[in-house]
Amino acid sequence: MTDGQRASTGAKRRKRSYRDSSLGDRIFDICNHTFLVCLMIVTLYPFVNTLAVSFNDAADSLKGGVYVWPRDWTLENYTYVFNEATILGATVISVLRTVIGTVATVFFSAMVAYTISRQEYVLRKFVSIAFILTMYFSGGLIPTFLLVRDLGLINSFWVYIWPGLIGVFNLIVIRSFIEGLPESVIESARIDGAGEFRTFISIVLPLCVPVLATVALFTAVYQWNSWFDVFLYNSSKVELSTLQYELQKILQNSNATASRTAADAFASSGNGSSNKVTPLSIRATMTIVAAVPIILVYPFLQKYVVKGMMVGGVKG
């Protein structure tokens, strides 16, 4: 039977099954599909609206009424954002931070998770409790800043990596997943003469791809969107600034000048030649610029994310 014949047979079976279903089942299906469509619209509308505002003339957007389609198309908002001299360098730093930070966090978190998942490790409970306590109690902003300073990480790229190298939540999720793996697989590796590190690299890591992809996505989103640590530790070094921090400065500058240019923006909107930007248009443009990389990456990790969250949650 060809693929076309199989598809035709499957479609006929679905139609027959739908005809044979009861009235209650049909009503449920209609209500279920209606609810899901409404949920999709509610979920997508904020992003579509933000995209429309980012491509709409800034002065025209102040009038309101821009919903899902730009009323006055323009690229002025994006031109204003990307004309900043520091944007290109900040984007490179953000990409490096996201890639290096994600790989390092996933690898070392998985290594620690594997260690405390071993029954033969006598300090596993003590170490686990010590990690979990950090989720409820922290030293605070000032002690953290003093520690980072004493470690010599101020005005350094590695301040983006080392302080958050081990995420406790990620650690718990990975440990729960590892504890659900068949112990016989690990025992067989040991019988073949593999040490702990070789077992971790060759056996455990390949089996943990779903949960590692989940943790990688969460970590990448955090690293990509983070800007406050740049403000605290590297605000004096422009070459270490990130894209999010530079976008934040652009937004602050637009807010500072909004009161002086609002009247001019309204006045110039009538002749169709406005080159003004507003905080509203800048916020929309920044949102799109910051979200697009994550949106492009997520489809490739979606199947792993769903599987990793389900299995990790059940085993936890």
Structure description:
This protein has 2 domains: 1-54, no CATH class; 82-245 and 287-315, Orthogonal Bundle (MetI-like fold), CATH 1.10.3720. The protein has helices at residues 3-20, 23-54, 58-61, 76-82, 87-117, 124-136, 141-150, 168-179, 183-191, 196-207, 209-225, 228-233, 243-268, 279-315. Residues 265-275 and 312-316 have low confidence and may be disordered. It has 316 residues and is an all-alpha fold. Its main location: membrane. The chain crosses the membrane at residues 27-48, 87-114, 126-148, 160-178, 199-224, 280-301. Keywords: Cell membrane, Membrane, Transmembrane, Transmembrane helix, Transport. Residues 91-301 form the ABC transmembrane type-1 domain.
Q: What's the total count of β strands?
A: 0
Low-confidence parts lasting 5 or more residues at pLDDT below 50? Answer: 265-275, 312-316
Query: Looking at the chains present, what oligomeric state does this protein adopt?
Result: single chain
Report the average pLDDT across residues.
81
Bin the helical content. Answer: over 70%
Determine and state the CATH class of the largest domain. Answer: Mainly Alpha
Q: Give the CA-based shape.
A: flat
SS class: mainly alpha
The CATH topology annotation of the largest domain reads as MetI-like fold
Say which CATH homologous superfamily of the largest domain is assigned: MetI-like
Query: Can you count the helices?
Result: 14
Strand-residue proportion: under 5%
The domain count comes to 2
Helix and strand run: HHHHHHHHHHHHHH
For the record, the CATH architecture of the largest domain stands as: Orthogonal Bundle
Q: Sheet bearing the most strands, described?
A: none
Could you give the distance between the termini? 44 Å
Cα gyration radius (Å): 26 Å
Membrane topology: Multi-pass membrane protein
Transmembrane segments: 27-48, 87-114, 126-148, 160-178, 199-224, 280-301
Domain ABC transmembrane type-1: 91-301
Subcellular location: Cell membrane
